[in-house]
Amino acid sequence: MLNTETNEPAETHLKDVLHEGKSPSGQAKPAQKRRIFAAVAVLALLAGATAIGTTLPDPKSSDAYAALAAEKASVESERDSAESSYASMKSKYDTLQNGIAAREAKLTTREAEVGKADAAVKTADAAVKVREDAVTGAEKAKAANTVADGTWTVGADIEPGTYRAVEAVGSSCYWGIYRSGSNGGDIIENDIPGGGRPVVALSVGQDFNSTRCGKWEKQ
Q1: Radius of gyration of the chain (CA)
Q2: How far apart are CA 151 and CA 171, in angstroms?
Q3: In degrees rounded to 5, what are phi and psi of residue 209?
Q4: Residues 51, 52, 55, CA angle at the centre, nearest 5°?
Q5: Which residues make Cβ contacts (< 8 Å) with residue 189, sequence separation at least 6?
Q6: How far apart are CA 42 and CA 1, in angstroms?
Q7: How far apart are CA 186 and CA 209, in angstroms?
Q8: What's the order of all strands across the beta sheet hosting 174-179?
Q9: Which residues pair with 189 in a beta bridge?
Q10: d(CA 202, CA 200)
Q11: Domain residues of the chain, as ranges?
């Protein structure tokens, strides 16, 4: 090892320092003792560093390093495989989500169409109901204004007004109008028409009798 100031070996320089530091009696001077101690310490450090540098093994060549390197490579491989698997599953998931969204959109459209159809059906049902009610009302009104064979009190059993036979009567048809409460004893008007469709005018306070004439309808 060289002395950086004299380019001489450190050992030679140390010997010179030791020789210069002695008195004629062979004892080292106090000032020189410190220089000698420092030089010895430096030499010891340099020698130790050289020994350590030449004896420590390369950590990469150890079994532990090799095992850790193999474990790291295995973990990285598992990580890469997991990332690839995740990417594949994510792609499938996205595809399914897009399909679900498309089906939901179609379902929403279909529900709207069904709603429109239901509304149309309800509207049609309401219109039919109105027509049915109208027909029923007309039939009820017609029934209320239709008189069959029998004796009826005008204003109580039937409405006053003009009535006409619904169909042509036969020769046995008889009708009569009486004062109410007379039990047929007070005849106001009667007839045996013998055919055709006879007409009668009825007022409140009268009884009307129809025998074998069929139905009469208010005009």
Answers
A1: 67
A2: 20
A3: -120, 135
A4: 85
A5: 176, 177, 200
A6: 11
A7: 13
A8: 150-153, 206-211, 174-179, 187-191
A9: 177
A10: 6
A11: 10-55, 81-144, 147-218
**Could you give phi then psi for residue 207, rounded to 5 degrees?**
-110, 145
Predicted confidence (pLDDT) per residue in 118-156, tens digit: 898 888 888 888 887 777 677 777 788 999 999 999 999
Contact 164, 219 (CB under 8 A): yes
Confidence band, pLDDT 50/70/90 cuts, at residue 30: low
Decide if pLDDT at 208 tops 90.
Answer: yes
Rounded CA gap, 51 and 45, in Å? 10
Distance CA 56, CA 46 (A): 16
How far, in Å, CA of 37 to CA of 30, rounded? 11
**What is the Cα–Cα distance from 208 to 178, expressed in whole angstroms?**
7
Judge contact between 151 and 175, C-beta under 8 A.
Answer: no
Taking the C-alpha atoms of 22, 25, 29 and 33 in order, what is their torsion angle to the nearest 10 degrees? 60
DSSP secondary structure of 43-58: HHHHHHHHHHHHHSPP
Residue 213 token pair: 């004439």
3-state secondary structure of 66: helix
Phi/psi of residue 212, each to 5°? 55, 35
With contact defined as beta carbons under 8 Å apart, do 151 and 158 qualify?
A: no
Phi, psi of 178 (to 5 degrees): -125, 160
